[in-house]
């Protein structure tokens, strides 16, 4: 190293060898000023795929927004100070929360089934990325055979239309009958439900002739069946997926936060339309997940939004999946 360096110093005075030696000098002389690589800002992974029996499950991060919170978005029925302290105890900010959005795609080998469509154009650039990220996941919009709408909230139906046309041109659609009837009732077009009901009119109603309206326990395609998850909205459905004895739950918005919803399932959540039914549903489904030790994806769980639910002394705990679905 020493002799090489002294050779370089001599050759520095003349010709191309001097240029070739520059990177070496940069490494050797501390404090030498050379151009740094530009900083590119935060980056996080946004496409994930795992195997479930003969099926493949892909999760795609549609994006995330950050708002004030957690109180009163979470723990509306609790003192603000108690919610803030609980957030900090769990390594979370007591003044800001992030809400992320993760549509799920199940390829059964025969059909490609998309669960929820993300936010669409309304929340760009922060979210509404499903349409762009599909390509990263190796899919084209026309590959999608079935679109399942778990419930009618904007972050789930906003991406169904792109420039007034269906994002998935060849798909048929599935939605809970109770959910569709609730959002399309004329009374919803006024009062607190007005904005969402209008979005349902532009994004969901035009697809009605390609739509199947189902009840809990109905089968979407072989291996995928609806589960009653009423409460967050009047007719939200979760979906049970099974292939070759491997089971998985797509729980939509049964939980909205991986700490608050699991560790404090009784805390009221602003997004839950019927607080008591949503709480009862949350406990029933979390208990089933913990008892059966099922992997689960939740639309608002931290990406890749797949994990397990562990029962604790007085509630539940989210256990983020690692390699379990890759063995
Ligand atoms: Zn949601």
Structural class: alpha+beta
- Spatial strand order of the main sheet: 1-2-5-6-7-10-11
How many domains, in number, for the residues?
Answer: 2
CATH class of the largest domain: Alpha Beta
Secondary-structure element string: HHEEEHEEEHEHEEEHHEEEEEHHEEE
Bound molecules: zinc ion
Low-confidence stretches: 1-26
Q: Architecture of the largest domain, according to CATH?
A: 4-Layer Sandwich
**Share of helix, binned:** 25-40%
Q: What's the CATH topology label of the largest domain?
A: Metallo-beta-lactamase, Chain A
- Quick one: how many beta strands? 18
**Approximate strand percentage:** 25-35%
Question: What's the story with the biggest beta sheet?
Answer: 7 strands, mixed
Q: Please tell me what the overall shape is.
A: globular
Give the N-to-C terminal Cα separation.
46 Å
Quickly count the helices. 9
**C-alpha Rg, in Å?**
25 Å
In terms of quaternary structure, the protein is single chain
CATH homologous superfamily grouping of the largest domain: Ribonuclease Z/Hydroxyacylglutathione hydrolase-like
* Chain-averaged pLDDT: 92
């Amino acid at each position: 190293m020493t002799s090489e360096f002294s050779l370089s110093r001599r050759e520095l005075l003349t010709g191309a060898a001097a240029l070739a030696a520059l990177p070496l000098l940069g490494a050797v002389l501390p404090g030498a000023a050379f151009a740094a690589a530009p900083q590119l800002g935060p980056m996080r992974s946004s496409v994930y795929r795992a195997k479930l029996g003969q099926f493949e499950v892909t999760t795609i991060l549609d994006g995330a927004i950050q708002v004030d919170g957690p109180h009163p978005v979470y723990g509306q029925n609790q003192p603000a100070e108690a919610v803030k302290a609980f957030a900090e105890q769990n390594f979370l900010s007591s003044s800001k929360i992030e809400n992320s959005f993760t549509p799920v795609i199940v390829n059964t080998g025969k059909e490609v089934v998309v669960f929820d469509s993300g936010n669409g154009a309304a929340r760009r650039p922060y979210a509404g990325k499903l349409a762009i990220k599909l390509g990263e996941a190796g899919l084209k919009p026309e590959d999608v055979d079935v679109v399942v709408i778990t419930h009618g909230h904007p972050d789930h139906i906003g991406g169904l239309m792109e420039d007034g046309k269906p994002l998935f041109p060849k798909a048929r659609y599935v939605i809970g009958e109770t959910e569709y009837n609730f959002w399309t009732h004329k009374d919803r077009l006024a009062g607190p439900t007005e904005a969402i009901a209008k979005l349902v009119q532009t994004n969901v109603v035009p697809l009605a002739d390609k739509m199947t309206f189902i009840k809990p326990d109905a089968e979407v395609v072989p291996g995928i069946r609806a589960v009653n998850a009423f409460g967050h909205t009047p007719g939200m459905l979760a979906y049970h997926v099974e292939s070759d004895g491997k089971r998985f739950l797509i729980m939509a918005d049964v939980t909205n936060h991986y700490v608050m919803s699991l560790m404090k399932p009784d805390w009221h959540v602003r997004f839950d339309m019927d607080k008591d039914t949503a709480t009862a549903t949350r406990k029933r489904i979390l208990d089933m997940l913990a008892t059966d030790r099922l992997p689960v994806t939740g639309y608002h769980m931290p990406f890749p939004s797949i994990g397990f639910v562990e029962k604790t002394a007085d509630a539940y705990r989210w256990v983020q999946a690692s390699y379990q679905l890759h063995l």
